[in-house]
Specification:
It is a single chain. The protein is mostly helical. It contains five helices and no strands. The chain has helices at about 1-10, 15-30, 30-45, 45-60, 65-80. Helix 2 runs antiparallel to helix 5 (about 65-80).
Length: about 100
């Protein structure tokens, strides 16, 4: 599903994907202060920093993740042209 989504997005698909990822991270338990920091990075067109902040904080707080969320992370990272090393640590948090 998420791989199909990127085809439908416009020229700023990375920004849209980061925003969606941020919303979902909040639902999963990302603390509000970290969501605000990531949103501020995004607002200043620092989508990569927003993504990295989310990944770091999700891992730091050991927030359980779903396989669907991890797929969203992969699609977002691809749109940002980030290597898997930037987010693959989150695999340790995916509920089986």
């Amino acid at each position: 599903m998420w791989h199909q989504l990127r085809k439908w997005l416009g020229p700023d698909k990375a920004s849209v994907l980061v925003k969606q990822l941020l919303i979902e991270a909040g639902r999963l338990g990302l603390p509000a202060r970290d969501a605000v920091i990531a949103q501020e990075y995004r607002d200043y067109a620092e989508r990569g920093l927003a993504f990295e902040h989310m990944v770091t904080q999700l891992f730091e707080y050991a927030i359980p993740l779903t396989a669907d969320f991890y797929e969203q992370v992969e699609v977002c990272a691809e749109s940002l042209e980030m290597a898997p090393e930037a987010y693959s640590i989150l695999l340790l948090l995916v509920k089986k």
